[in-house]
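Quick one, probably user error.
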């Protein structure tokens, strides 16, 4: 009975911002599950050696396509939550625009497949490669511009340092992937570290937004429970 009461109390605190937070939390989980499932279901695929994009060329590549389409759409929705819940300073709106493009690029990564390694380049493969590079390059810039607002907002200050670190790591991984050839034996591992860094930040920010929305719902519920304020000196 206590569990049911606690669950009901939790649900009452949820609001539209909570739903936006769930979008940010769900996207990385969906991509992670679809990537792992497709990889383990594809004989001969190697997590360390093979790129994430090459999974789309396997029998279960449709799973990875679903994963990228899902996280792209959910990041777009989640970004609205950041826009409405962070006290922005200079550069904040630019960071939101960049995150919108980041989510859209993830959608295109799923919609267009890569070309097999060594094969003749196709338009679809070029679009995939361009959008992947765009998504990975946009993220560290977005972190650079959103971090001052996180530092300025007491509710978000807790992930300010982490956001700086995530941005620096993303920049390093992008440079390494740009310099190293695609056929090195650990390209897949490096690419997965890059993607993991991006989606973990989205997950953490989603959890932060959920906690903020729950606190907001709790404060609102408390004010309703206490009733309207009375005038001083009233009988």
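Nope, works fine. Designed sequence:
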């Amino acid at each position: 009975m206590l569990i049911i009461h606690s669950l009901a109390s939790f649900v009452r605190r949820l609001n539209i911002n909570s739903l936006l937070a769930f979008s940010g939390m769900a996207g990385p989980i969906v991509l992670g599950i679809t990537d792992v499932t497709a990889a383990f279901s594809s004989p001969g695929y190697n997590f360390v050696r093979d790129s994430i994009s090459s999974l789309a060329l396997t029998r279960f590549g449709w799973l990875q396509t679903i994963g990228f389409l899902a996280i792209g759409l959910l990041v777009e929705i989640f970004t609205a939550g950041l826009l409405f819940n962070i006290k922005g300073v200079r550069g904040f709106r630019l960071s939101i625009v960049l995150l919108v493009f980041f989510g859209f690029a993830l959608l295109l990564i799923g919609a267009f497949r890569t070309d097999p390694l060594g094969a003749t380049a196709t338009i679809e493969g070029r679009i995939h490669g361009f959008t992947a590079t765009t998504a990975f390059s946009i993220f560290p810039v977005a972190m650079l511009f959103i971090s001052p607002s996180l530092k300025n907002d007491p509710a978000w200050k807790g992930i300010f340092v982490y956001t700086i670190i995530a941005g620096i790591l993303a920049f390093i991984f992008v440079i390494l992937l740009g310099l190293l050839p695609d056929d090195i034996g650990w390209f897949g591992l490096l690419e997965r570290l890059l993607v993991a860094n991006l989606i973990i930040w989205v997950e953490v920010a989603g959890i932060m937004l959920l906690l903020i929305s729950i606190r907001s719902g709790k404060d609102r519920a408390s004010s309703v429970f206490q009733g309207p304020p009375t005038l001083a000196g009233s009988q």
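Residues 18-212 form one domain.
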